[in-house]
Amino acid sequence: MLCENPPVDEAVAVSRGAARTRARPRRRTSVAGVIGELLITAGVIVLLYVVWQLWVGDMIYGAERNATGAELSEQWQQEYQQQNPEAAPAPSATDEPAAPVTADPPVMAEPRDGERFAVMHIPRFGTDYAVPMAGGVTRARTLDPIGIGHYPGTMMPGQPGNFALAAHRTTWGKPFNRIADLHVGDAIVVETEAGWYTYRFRTLEYVKPSAVEVLLPVPQVKDVPAGTAYITMTSCSPMYAMTERIVAYGVFESFTPRSAGEPASLQAVT
C-alpha cells in the first residue's frame, strides 16, 4: 500500500535542503561586472554601425546616388524635348549611337558649393552608374550628401586645363570605389544639361595628400599653359585609410550635344 505522505526522515531532509536554499546568499553584482556588460553592449553597437556604414549603408547610398543621377538625366532630356517639340525623340538602346562632335563644346559657369551641375557615367562601372556632381569638395555640402565634387578654381568640362574632381572610395555610396579598375581608353562621360563630354582614361598614380600639383592646369607640371582638356579624379588610398591619394587622369575626346542623342561612349563595356 502506497503512502500519500513521505517518511519522516525524508521530509526532514527536504525541509533542511529547502532551508539551506533559502539561506544561500544572493549573488552581488559588482561594478566591474556592470562595466563589462556595458562594454560588450557598446562593442556590439559599434560593430553593427560599422557593418551598416561599410556595407549595408553603402549599398543603399550607392543606389540612391545612381537613382538621383538617372532622374537628373531624364529631367534634362524632358526639358529639352519640351523646348524643342520638333526634335527627334530620345534614342532607344537599339538605335545607332550619335557621332561625337568635337568643335567648340559649350563652357559652363563654375557651380556654387553644393550646386548640382552634371552626372558622371563610367561604363566600366556598370550601365546603371550615374552619380551626380556638384560644386565644392567639402564632405558636409557635397561629398557625403551628393557624390562627386568639383575642386573650386579648376576648369569646367571641355575647357583646356584641368577639370578636377573628388569623391569617396569607401562609405557614402563610394562613387570612386573602383577607380583602380579603369583600363586605358575607358570612357569617362560627364553629362550636363547641354549634352555629353567624353574623356578617355589614360593613367593612374598614387601621391601624398599634400601633392596639390595634381590640380594644376597641366597636372603635375608647373608653369605650363594648358592646351589640352584634362580630367583628374582623386580619392583616398588605400581603402579605409587616408595616408595617400589615388589619382586617375583622362584626356578630353569629344562633346555630343543633346540634340544628337546619347554618344557611343556610353555603350556598355564588354
Automatic annotation (TrEMBL):
Protein name: Class E sortase
Region (Disordered): 72-110
Chain intervals with Low complexity compositional bias: 74-91
Keywords, comma-separated and alphabetical: Hydrolase, Membrane, Transmembrane, Transmembrane helix
Keyword Membrane: yes
Xref: Gene3D superfamilies: Sortase
Regions that span the bilayer: 30-55
